[in-house]
């Protein structure tokens, strides 16, 4: 029976009421008394030398409060990179400066050249048009392989080349992998592109900076997934404002998907300018501006080779990837193609030898960083595509080939340095075959063919790693931050509870799901518990929400803090009940002396903590508030199997998704309704990547897909209902809730099955030579492939 | 500056607007009704949909001056005065038809009009009707399901395993 | 947007007078113009709204049997009110943009703008419609003049579009996946004296008549009549969403489908 409250219940989301009635509080809804508006003059060329910026005419225009250029940021820190990758040869990556406003050169279309602050946005924009910028255009570096050729123009003059790093993993495996591939009975090779995407949360980024001269405190309201990270990066590395004088608030945030993790120039600018001008400064991105200033995602070009023995066992895997960094290193960019990608290349398979090479490249494009899945979709896509291609080459069933090579014993140490604690890949595949009705496929294919359509079925597996940790390990890998999280459980006198968490909810439903956990532990009603998040002045120092970490990491901190609360409350109860502490049991909000009917209610204990008249003051402090920090000992490893069924119109190349099924293993689940919603959303984005979305630059570095007129966002008509299942649960062994994380799975697990299905459809028409099409599988690409 | 007066959620309001003021700017900035959102600048995302004289329109693609004298309903005017959610709003909560909430006002406004015109739409009709409303969180599954449920249809068998 | 004034006249005469001002620009539904203004790609001194002019609203049938649509009639109204008179036209209107766009966007605005990927120009051209302005009537064949170019003069307003009703007609749109405009749209209209085929979305010269297909279909109104016919890919648009070859191919496919569906 499904529960109706606590862990496992599909509790309706309490935050929905404000969102459904227009009473949410998003950053653009915040207006500060006396606020000014900033308009950023952005580069319209991809690469150029700034010879001169003349702001004199603009400065004299009506309403202008201040104009800033890169010169105003001389001596002020640039935007920091949070991860230093060490290359194959033991050298640190090349790390260019990233000024808040361009200094000397512009390096991508959208690079901010100047910022105009005025009484109105229109005045700011009018004045920005009056700024005279003399830019000497330079050859644009766009293609990654060309960027690494001798004689290529350099994005950064002070670096030796456009190569950020050349990473090998595990470098010691390289010779053995090369040997195994040379001697293999069969090698399947695939070259592919993981298309550049724009995250496109529906709320564009916004930043409001405010300065209070009376106490020298700055406040930044921003659309962030992690306000404390922004406070630390901006305060310590950019502006030199100590934490106690800087407050960062991320109120309701309209989706993030990774792109709101990073510290952006606009945030630093409004905070800086508010201090300089002693006026609040507001910036609201237009969608067009978002396309050229939000960090993009993916953009890998990969060659993958899978070696098999004569019995179709995987014996070795070798990959070579070019990963686009864009013009600057965004906050976590270097980690995405390396530690979030190379470590996942074993997938669900017991391939004994793996070598991953990644060349990260600077180009004159918007910086690329984590987008939903971040490295793991890239790993999954290439692996699950090459496995499918191998099955077709060998004439074996793609599912059978996968099953034959599944990892079956846990814990399992992969040759790419991670240890999977639990999983059952056979179970999720069994479940998938059932919920996707694979048995009925041939009949459905016949129906499609009778209409003149082709039908294809594609399957893939995935493994992912969530809740990146532990901090001491990631520190060795180059992370410049800890990766724990924190929660403070503040029990109020009347028994209600405020839980201050480092995680940030921007669609994930923490305000509903987190109280379910605490309520379950205490046996009280969920409605007595409120989650506080998103304000650095209220919450403990936590790292925010990304990488499907919130429940596994922050939720664990919350459990630890709640355990401390229970321990202390039991002490208080034992005093009130005049019993031994060890005999106190907590159930349904009542503290009972074991084996007796003597009990005291939750509210009586909490009141005693704050009105300690009858209280063991000599033994324990008054009050009932506890904080815990939690640093996981390992990643969590959600896994699953996905199936997509497509119909393809051979006359036009148009693909429609007819059925989609997902069987996931997320370990334990707190709120199944929310978990399923996360999977739905991930699948929607994965289908978007597979069929629709593509961020394209021309050879001059102009962004061609610069708005929704050319960047194809998935619409309701582009997707079907999804069949999702998370009943095959192998709980995580190392966190207290046994949870794994579900936020990114859908986006990681879905693109390969879509592409596999399209290839299956095309090959069913006899065109066996069509073995791959790069995403997005737009009608014209599919049609063109079928003409070949 | 031209004087404008209109009825918003049953309340007479007036103000001044320059010729280039958009209706959504007038609602959000002058009336401080921030429930209506702006998610794009090419009239595609639909986060800004409101009802003008009974029709769903994109308030980011209508000049405020065009709405002079109009009857306007925004997301703030959809629930009952006592706070009871409309059936569309309630279904969105019941069926988890929203996550971050940013597209939600436009979705609710569009869906409300759809059900007025077509009291029992099919899945395909709903999906087609949402052409101009982009959601990045839900993959649309629960939005479509919620709208079907709001129309009184049995949704218990949808994508049942 | 740049600063501009706004005026909303209630008669065509007042609108024409208002448009006589320097850099004044007509505003119909605004579904294309307003996004253009947001990008600061236009700098009018004044917008003259055409949405408050009763004589430019509505759908009716005249004595000649033509369906007459007021220039400021929104797509949604055409979709509803033209359905009985000219189903293919109503179907086209019911599929432009999205519901909210259809409640604002107007036929006059679309035809005046002549976006190469807009739907209406194909219906106007294939139907041999008459574009009626405040001072003249322009035959469709004389009206369209390349991308975003028309026979309209400065300050001239489309007050009405009159469509002869064909015996059979159909519009097939293959959408560009991002904008949902037509990547290729084909309107086929069969009249007693022959078939007209107009193609939108595809050509570097904007909407055009595919005369080869017209001749073949006039002789034999069946999808097979298109077999072997192709438009010259050299004239087609090439962009992110479709190569010239792909568009040329789709013109054939969509034409066949329109013929098959025409009723």
From TrEMBL, chain A:
Keywords: Molybdenum, Oxidoreductase
Record GO terms (molecular function): iron ion binding; oxidoreductase activity
InterPro entries: Ald_Oxase/Xan_DH_a/b, Ald_Oxase/Xan_DH_a/b_sf, Ald_Oxase/xanthine_DH-like, AldOxase/xan_DH_MoCoBD1, AldOxase/xan_DH_MoCoBD2, AldOxase/xan_DH_Mopterin-bd_sf
Domain of life: Bacteria
All residue ranges annotated as the Aldehyde oxidase/xanthine dehydrogenase a/b hammerhead domain in the record: 21-139
UniProt name for this protein: Carbon monoxide dehydrogenase, large subunit
Provenance organism: Donghicola eburneus
Lineage: Bacteria, Pseudomonadati, Pseudomonadota, Alphaproteobacteria, Rhodobacterales
UniProtKB/TrEMBL annotation, chain B:
Segments forming domain 2Fe-2S ferredoxin-type: 2-78
Gene Ontology MF terms in the entry: 2 iron, 2 sulfur cluster binding; metal ion binding; oxidoreductase activity
Domain of life: Bacteria
InterPro entries, A to Z: 2Fe-2S-bd (IPR002888), 2Fe-2S-bd_dom_sf (IPR036884), 2Fe-2S_ferredoxin-like_sf (IPR036010), 2Fe-2S_ferredoxin-type (IPR001041), Beta-grasp_dom_sf (IPR012675), Diverse_Oxidoreductases (IPR051452)
SUPFAM superfamilies from the UniProt entry: 2Fe-2S ferredoxin-like, CO dehydrogenase ISP C-domain like
Keywords attached to this entry: 2Fe-2S, Iron, Iron-sulfur, Metal-binding, Oxidoreductase
Keyword Iron-sulfur: yes
PANTHER family: OXIDOREDUCTASE WITH IRON-SULFUR SUBUNIT
Name of the protein in its database record: Carbon monoxide dehydrogenase small chain
Lineage: Bacteria, Pseudomonadati, Pseudomonadota, Alphaproteobacteria, Rhodobacterales
From TrEMBL, chain C:
Superkingdom per UniProt: Bacteria
Primary gene name: coxM
Record field: transmembrane: none
UniProt xrefs under SUPFAM superfamilies: CO dehydrogenase flavoprotein C-terminal domain-like, FAD-binding/transporter-associated domain-like
InterPro entries xref list: CO_DH_flav_C, CO_DH_flav_C_dom_sf, Diverse_Substr_Oxidored, FAD-bd_PCMH, FAD-bd_PCMH-like_sf, FAD-bd_PCMH_sub1, FAD-bd_PCMH_sub2, Mopterin_DH_FAD-bd
SMART domains: CO_deh_flav_C
Pfam family, one: FAD_binding_5
MF-aspect GO terms: FAD binding; oxidoreductase activity
Protein name as annotated: Carbon monoxide dehydrogenase, medium subunit
Domain FAD-binding PCMH-type: 1-168
Keywords: FAD, Flavoprotein, Oxidoreductase
């Amino acid at each position: 029976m499904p529960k109706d409250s606590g862990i496992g219940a599909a509790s309706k989301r309490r935050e929905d009421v404000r969102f459904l009635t227009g009473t949410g509080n998003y950053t653009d809804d915040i207006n500060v008394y006396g606020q000014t508006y900033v308009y950023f003059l952005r580069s319209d060329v991809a690469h150029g030398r700034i010879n001169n910026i003349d702001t004199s005419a603009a400065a004299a225009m009506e309403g202008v409060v201040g104009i800033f250029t890169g010169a105003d940021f001389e001596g002020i820190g640039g935007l920091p990179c949070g991860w230093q990758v060490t290359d194959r040869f033991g050298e640190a990556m090349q790390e260019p400066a990233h000024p808040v406003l361009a200094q000397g050169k512009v390096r991508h279309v959208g690079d901010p050249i100047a910022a105009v602050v005025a009484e109105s946005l229109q005045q700011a924009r009018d004045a920005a048009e009056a700024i005279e910028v003399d830019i000497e255009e330079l050859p644009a570096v766009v293609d990654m392989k060309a960027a690494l050729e001798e004689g290529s123009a350099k994005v950064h003059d002070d670096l030796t080349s456009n190569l950020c790093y050349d990473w090998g993993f595990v470098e010691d495996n390289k010779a053995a992998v090369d040997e195994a591939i040379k001697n293999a009975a069969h090698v399947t090779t695939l070259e592919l592109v993981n298309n550049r995407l724009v995250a496109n949360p529906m709320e564009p980024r916004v930043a409001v900076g405010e300065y209070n001269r009376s106490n020298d405190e700055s406040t930044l309201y921003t659309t962030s997934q992690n306000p404390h990270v922004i406070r630390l990066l901006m305060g310590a590395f950019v502006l030199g404002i100590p934490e106690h004088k800087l407050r960062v608030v991320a109120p309701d945030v309209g989706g993030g998907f990774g792109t709101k993790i990073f510290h952006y120039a606009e945030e630093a600018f409004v905070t800086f300018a508010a201090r300089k001008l002693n006026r609040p400064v507001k910036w609201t991105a237009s969608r067009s501006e978002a396309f050229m200033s939000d960090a993009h995602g993916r953009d890998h070009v990969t060659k993958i080779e899978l070696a098999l023995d004569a019995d179709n066992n995987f014996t070795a895997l070798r990959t070579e990837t070019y990963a686009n960094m864009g013009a600057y290193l965004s906050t976590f960019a270097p980690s995405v193609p390396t530690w979030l990608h190379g470590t996942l290349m074993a997938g669900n398979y017991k391939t004994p030898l793996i070598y991953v090479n990644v060349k990260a490249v600077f180009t004159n494009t918007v910086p690329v960083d984590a987008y939903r899945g971040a490295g793991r979709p890239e790993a999954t896509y290439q692996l699950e595509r090459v496995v499918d291609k191998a099955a077709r080459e060998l004439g074996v069933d793609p599912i059978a080939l996968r099953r034959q090579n599944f990892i079956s014993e846990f814990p399992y140490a992969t040759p790419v340095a991670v240890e999977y604690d639990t999983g059952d890949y056979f179970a999720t595949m069994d479940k998938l075959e059932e919920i996707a009705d694979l048995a009925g496929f041939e009949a459905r294919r016949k129906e499609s063919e009778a209409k003149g359509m082709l039908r294809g079925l594609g399957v893939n597996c995935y493994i992912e790693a969530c809740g990146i940790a532990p901090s001491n390990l990631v520190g060795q890998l180059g992370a410049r931050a800890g990766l724990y999280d924190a929660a403070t459980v503040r029990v109020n006198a009347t028994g209600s509870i405020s839980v201050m968490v480092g995680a940030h909810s921007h669609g994930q439903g923490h305000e509903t799901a987190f109280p379910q956990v605490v309520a379950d532990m205490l046996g009280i009603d969920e409605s007595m518990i409120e989650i506080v998040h998103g304000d650095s002045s209220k919450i403990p120092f936590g790292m925010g929400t990304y990488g499907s970490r919130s429940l596994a990491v922050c939720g664990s901190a919350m459990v630890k803090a709640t355990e401390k609360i229970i321990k202390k409350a039991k002490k208080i109860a034992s005093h009130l009940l005049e019993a031994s502490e060890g005999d106190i049991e907590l159930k349904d909000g009542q503290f009972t002396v074991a084996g007796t009917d003597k009990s005291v209610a939750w509210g009586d204990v909490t009141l005693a903590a704050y009105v300690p008249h009858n209280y063991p003051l000599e033994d324990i402090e008054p009050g009932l508030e506890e904080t815990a920090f939690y640093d996981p000992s390992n990643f969590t490893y959600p896994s699953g199997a996905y199936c997509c069924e497509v119909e393809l119109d051979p006359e036009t190349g148009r693909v429609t998704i007819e059925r989609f099924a997902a069987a996931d293993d997320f370990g334990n689940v707190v709120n199944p309704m929310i978990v399923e919603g996360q999977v739905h959303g991930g699948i929607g984005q994965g289908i978007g990547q597979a069929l629709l979305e593509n961020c394209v630059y021309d050879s001059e570095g102009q962004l061609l897909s610069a708005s929704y007129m050319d960047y194809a966002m998935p619409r309701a008509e582009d997707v079907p209902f999804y069949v999702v299942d998370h009943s095959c649960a192998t709980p995580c062994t190392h966190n207290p809730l046994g949870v794994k994380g579900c936020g990114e799975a859908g986006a990681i697990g879905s693109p390969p099955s879509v592409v596999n299905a399209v290839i299956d459809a095309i090959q069913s028409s006899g065109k066996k030579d069509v073995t791959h099409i790069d995403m997005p599988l737009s009608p014209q690409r599919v049609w063109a492939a079928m003409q070949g | 500056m031209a004087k404008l007066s209109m009825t918003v959620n049953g309340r007479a309001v007036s103000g001044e607007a320059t010729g280039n003021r958009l209706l959504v700017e007038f609602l959000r900035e002058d009336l401080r009704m921030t429930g209506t959102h702006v998610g794009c600048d090419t009239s595609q995302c639909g986060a800004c949909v409101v009802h003008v004289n009974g029709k769903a329109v994109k308030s980011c693609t209508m000049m405020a001056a065009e709405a002079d004298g109009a009857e306007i309903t925004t997301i703030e005017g959809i629930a009952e005065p006592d706070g009871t959610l409309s059936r569309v709003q309630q279904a969105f909560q019941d069926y988890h038809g929203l996550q971050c909430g940013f597209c939600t006002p436009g979705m609710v406004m569009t869906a409300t009009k759809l059900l007025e015109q077509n009291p029992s739409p099919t899945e395909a009709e709903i999906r087609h009707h949402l052409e101009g409303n982009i959601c990045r969180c839900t993959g649309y599954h629960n939005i479509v399901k919620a709208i079907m449920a709001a129309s009184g249809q049995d949704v218990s068998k949808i994508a049942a395993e | 947007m740049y600063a501009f004034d706004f005026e909303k006249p209630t008669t065509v005469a007042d609108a024409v007078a208002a448009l006589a001002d320097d850099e004044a620009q007509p505003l119909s539904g605004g579904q294309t113009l307003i996004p253009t203004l947001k990008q600061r790609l236009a700098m009018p001194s004044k917008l003259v709204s055409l949405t408050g002019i009763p004589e430019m609203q509505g759908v009716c049938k005249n004595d000649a049997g033509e369906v007459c649509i007021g220039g400021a009639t929104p797509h949604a109204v055409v979709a509803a009110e033209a359905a009985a008179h000219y189903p293919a036209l109503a179907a086209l209107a019911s599929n432009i943009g999205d519901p909210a766009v259809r409640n604002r966007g107007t036929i006059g605005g679309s035809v005046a703008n002549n976006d190469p990927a807009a739907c209406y120009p194909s219906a106007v051209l294939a139907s041999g419609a008459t574009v009626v302005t405040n001072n003249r009537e322009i035959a469709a064949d004389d009206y369209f003049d390349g991308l975003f170019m028309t026979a309209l003069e400065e300050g001239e307003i489309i007050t009405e579009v009159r469509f002869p009703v064909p015996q059979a007609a159909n519009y097939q749109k293959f959408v560009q996946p991002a904008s949902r405009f037509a990547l290729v749209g084909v309107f086929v209209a069969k009249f007693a004296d022959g078939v007209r085929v107009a193609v939108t979305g595809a050509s570097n010269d904007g909407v055009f008549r595919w005369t080869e297909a017209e001749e073949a279909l006039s002789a034999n109104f069946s999808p097979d009549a298109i077999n072997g016919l192709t438009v010259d890919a050299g004239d087609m648009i090439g962009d992110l969403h479709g190569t010239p070859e792909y568009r040329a191919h789709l013109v054939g496919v969509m034409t066949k489908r329109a013929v098959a569906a025409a009723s």
